[in-house]
Amino acid sequence: MTDISLTEPAALNVRAATARKVGVGDARFRLIAFLAAVTVLLIFAGVIVALIGGALPAIRAFGLGFITTEAWRPAREIFGALGPIYGTLITSAIAIVVAVPVGIGIAIFLTEICPRFLRRPIGIAIELLAGVPSIIYGIWGLFVFAPWFQSWVQEPVIAATAGIPVLGTLFGDPAYGIGIFTAGLILSIMILPFISAVTRDVLEAVPSVLKEASYGLGSTQWEVIWKVAIPYARTGIVGGGMLALGRALGETMAVTFVIGNAHRIAPSLFAPGTSISAAIANEFTEATTPLYTSSLIALGLILFVITFIVLTCAQLMLRSMEKSAGK
Predict the structure, then answer these.
(1) Peptide bond into 174 cis (omega under 30)
(2) What beta strand segments (E) does the chain contain?
(3) pLDDT of residue 259
(4) Nearest Cα residue to 174 out of 270, 41, 300, 314
(5) For residue 286, what are the CA distances in angstroms to 74, 83, 290, 292?
(6) Does the CA dihedral 75-78-84-87 come out positive or negative?
(7) Residue 265 has what pLDDT?
(8) 64: buried, middle or exposed (CB in 10 Å: 19+, 13-18, 0-12)?
(9) Is the separation of the CB atoms in 178 and 146 below 8 Å?
(10) What was the pLDDT predicted at 21?
(11) What is the pLDDT of residues 24-73, one digit of tens each?
(12) Which pLDDT belongs to residue 127?
């Protein structure tokens, strides 16, 4: 009894000390996590302030006309962002339209159809595409893909659509190989790993009991994929697509190589154009006047706003989809 009575106070002291240490550790962890979150917000705010400050001379000089004007003449200090905005949006749209169906198809193949011994090698090979530097895509696109695309796609398509309303305009001359459509295709290859990887992960998370129940009711494999797996994973699929869209909007080097770098809006998707990131990368070292530099910074601010709007809309859409699904 004596030993027990002597050890009880010591045990209580040890417990109290341990509780104090745990409390101090939790407080430090909360403080570090809070500082990390605040740091991210401060960096975000600093980027916005720097862009706005640098773009103010161009905004004062051109106003809203900077966004609605196509002319870009540095020698006369006339700058309009409509051409780069158009090129950015169209190339990103082409990339998403091409990459999303292919990426979803790859994910379905890897999760539902592909033999088990091939799933890992194919998955790794596709994900390795995300690690290839963008400048490599640009060099390959300029020297390999563009000549092939000109000879085997552009020229036959131009000949086949000549004289057809709308199509003849969208896919008309010139056939240079490089251009807006080529840039969109290169972007689709670059964002494909993001879409396929995210889609594969969400499809693998579909409960097997749902698939087994559907098979038990007599559904075919296509019906299980289309009516069970895809609806269950649609939120993740949309999220992967929006992540890829954010990458496509800001891509620079690969687009710079193959888009043609022409500050104009042409009706043909095969014609050369430019994007916001490509214009900044090409001309920032040539900006010898304050207004020229400010106009390029204003392009960066516009790209920032476009990306922010796209990601915000994606978050709102994902929340709406989650609510409608009852999650």
Answers:
(1) yes
(2) 72-73, 78-79
(3) 95
(4) 270
(5) 10, 19, 11, 9
(6) negative
(7) 92
(8) exposed
(9) yes
(10) 62
(11) 777 788 889 999 999 999 999 999 999 999 999 999 999 999 999 999 99
(12) 80
Whole-angstrom CA distances from 90 to 94, 240, 269 are 6, 19, 9
Distant-in-sequence, close-in-space partners of 8: CB < 8 Å, separation ≥ 6: none
Is 82-324 a CATH 1.10.3720.10 domain? yes
pLDDT of residue 12: 60
Task: Identify the three-state secondary structure at position 258.
Answer: helix
Pairwise CA distance, residues 29 & 25, whole Å? 6
Tokens of 220: 């075919």
Query: DSSP 3-state assignment of 217?
Result: coil
Weakly modelled stretches of the chain, pLDDT under 70: 1-23, 325-327
Q: How far apart are CA 169 and CA 276, in angstroms?
A: 24
DSSP assignment of 89-131 equals HHHHHHHHHHHHHHHHHHHHIIIIIS-HHHHHHHHHHHHHGGG
